[in-house]
Backbone:
């Protein structure tokens, strides 16, 4: 059988999937719109840059590195929006991006982003990757750190993101050059949540006939909100 272009996924497809995870998780967590540029940069090296740099390594079906470099303004906007959306008051929030609390919250959001991405890889590309815990560094204006993921044949990309307040942050992805070729059709649907099944079974009765079924998108959003503690 002759394979068409649609049967093959490569680095840019991985990047699009990762970018959609970033926008989805951050938009839901902060209850605001996060967008990314339609243009992508091909880069040679990946760097942690000021004001807050975060990186995650992953391995398994393929290996790679994800970096997100936040400006102080973008980090504080996302941090504040997330915690205010969680119900905290202004008085409870840190006032500086150098606060440990800001780094911890941004690391938590980064962990959710990469978790969402690894789930997509499992469903859509039929392979498995694992991630380490996100590492956050507050950097001053004179510091840039090169991060080497020890890849054999690396490809790297950079994408610009925009917050609802117009602040900018950057995502960098480095992965081994690879392609995923579809051999046969499969259903890349969301995995069933066993906790949800058990909860429904525990109710002892089926949903009433006039209850509208939740859509797949609603289920995904509810699961994401639950993982974010919301």
Residues:
């Amino acid at each position: 059988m002759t394979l068409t272009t649609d049967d093959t996924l490569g680095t840019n497809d991985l990047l699009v999937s990762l970018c959609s995870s970033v926008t989805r998780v951050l938009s839901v967590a902060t209850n605001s719109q996060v967008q990314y540029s339609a243009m992508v940069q091909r880069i040679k090296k990946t760097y942690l840059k000021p004001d807050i740099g975060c990186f995650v390594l992953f391995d398994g079906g393929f290996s790679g590195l994800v970096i997100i470099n936040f400006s102080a303004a973008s980090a504080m906007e996302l941090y504040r929006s997330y915690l205010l959306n969680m119900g905290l008051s202004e008085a409870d929030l840190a006032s500086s991006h150098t606060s440990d609390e800001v780094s911890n919250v941004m690391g938590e959001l980064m962990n959710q982003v990469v978790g969402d991405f690894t789930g997509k890889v499992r469903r859509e590309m039929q392979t498995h990757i694992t991630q380490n815990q996100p590492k956050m560094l507050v950097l001053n204006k004179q510091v840039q750190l090169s991060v080497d993921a020890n890849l054999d044949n690396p490809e790297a990309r950079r994408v610009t993101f925009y917050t609802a307040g117009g602040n900018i942050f950057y995502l960098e992805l480095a992965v081994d050059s690879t392609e995923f070729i579809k051999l046969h059709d499969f259903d890349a649907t969301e995995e069933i949540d066993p906790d949800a099944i058990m909860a429904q079974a525990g109710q002892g009765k089926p949903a009433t006939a006039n209850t509208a079924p939740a859509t797949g998108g609603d289920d995904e959003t509810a699961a994401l909100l639950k993982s974010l503690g919301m």
